[in-house]
Automatic annotation (TrEMBL):
One of its GO terms (molecular function) is acyltransferase activity, transferring groups other than amino-acyl groups. This is Succinate-semialdehyde dehydrogenase. It comes from Modicella reniformis. The chain holds residues 1 to 471 of 578 of the full protein. GO terms for biological process: gamma-aminobutyric acid catabolic process. Its EC number is 1.2.1.16. Pathway: Amino-acid degradation; 4-aminobutanoate degradation.
Amino acid sequence: MRVLDAECEWEARDPANGVEIAKFPDMGVDETERAIQAAKRAQREWSQATGRERGTLLRKWFNLMIENEQDLAKIITWENGKTLTEATGEVKYSASFFEWFSEEAKRLYGEVIPSPNKSQRMIAIRQPIGVVGVITPWNFPCAMLTRKLGAALAVGCTVVVKPASETPLSALALCELGRRAGLPDGVVNIVTTHDHTKEVGKHLCESVDVAGISFTGSTGVGKLLLKQSADTVKKVSLELGGNAPFIVFDDADIDKAVDGAIAAKFRASGQTCISVNRFYVHSSIREEFSEKLRERVKRFRVGSGFDLATTHGPLVNQKAVEKVRSHVEDAVAHGAKILAGGHDKASASSTDGYFYPPTVLGGMKNNMRIASEETFGPIASIFEFNTEEEVLAAANNTRFGLSGYFFSRDISRCWRIAEKLEVGMVGVNTGVISSEVAPFGGIKESGIGREGARQGLDEFTQYKIDKDCVH
Ligand code: ADP
């Protein structure tokens, strides 16, 4: 792997203080085309290696990630802002996909299908789709990449990666480890870009040499990529935005629900696609839950992710801060009450970074923007409900369907609600749902396809039927 030269550069900045981290080549369509051709050349040999050979390489890469865990974590904290503890967690989570897919590489099972014709046997084999365009976001700069690369490389695809322009360093560091693990040239190609993002994306979608697009990011961009991929009929896999509900029923263990709320809302300062956007709390326990959540949130300390006393780092950029601020202002203008936080930079240790304090809002109503728009920030918004029917209707009243959470000690209610929530992933009495062994993905406008798990291989493979005459 090499990073190609480009005429222009842009710089990524540390979100904790706005200071430049490094300059990167601002590549365009020409460099993207060269990367696609390199991936195409490499794919033939890569796809002909055995699953065991590809798996062994992924395993070496996994080992190198674990050996270099702290360096990778520092890079993530530097360019994304999350705390070093969270960044270390991300590295472990990222590496788990290489470990998982290093094993799955050997298990790309096809099927033997009973034939309707006595003289034939039918076998369905699975083959890699070819070159894949991979576009990743800044919120998990390492994990979103390994979740896609692990599966794509395991089955024999090669990739052209366009990392987010806020966080290119994590992708480059990760791929340097890939090079040390012995990854052949052309199997992973990185296109760093800033000003040419749209053209690079369009070129990946429209190229006849790219067989699939795997994207994680906003719903708007996902829809655009889907449209741009239509003319070449690509296999498209999309992990898009969410608007996760978190329901606390009257029979819930409130302390556990508060723990779950902290994990599902405030991890990465709420900047994850499975972060809770709307808390629905039964009217009989609303006050107790709100008070306990408020107490916990007031103890958070916002600051640089490198400061060990920091519990929550900055948001990724000023645009993110503006969006969070506008959601809070809109809610307050419509009658919401600030129970904790709510003032820009009030509890930040640095005044130059992109900070917004973790906030709890009470008295939320359906006419507020947060009820329907994803905030992507550290705001816990509490709505009140009275009946199961009412809360299910409210929770499902969105075009998004990625994740949902609820807390209840009634087992029959647990099964019932888990089935009726219109999402791809449900956390039942837990705020943590991501794992390399479980298929990650959404329904409705939250996406197409699944990542991680056995199902993650499906996005990068196609079936081919062999009919053999046996008489
Ligand atoms: P966010 O708003 O969270 O940054 P985006 O969807 O804009 O989410 O970004 C996710 C990824 O998509 C990033 O790598 C970004 O550079 C890329 N991206 C943004 N716009 C486009 C586009 N028009 N075509 C291709 N990629 C894009």
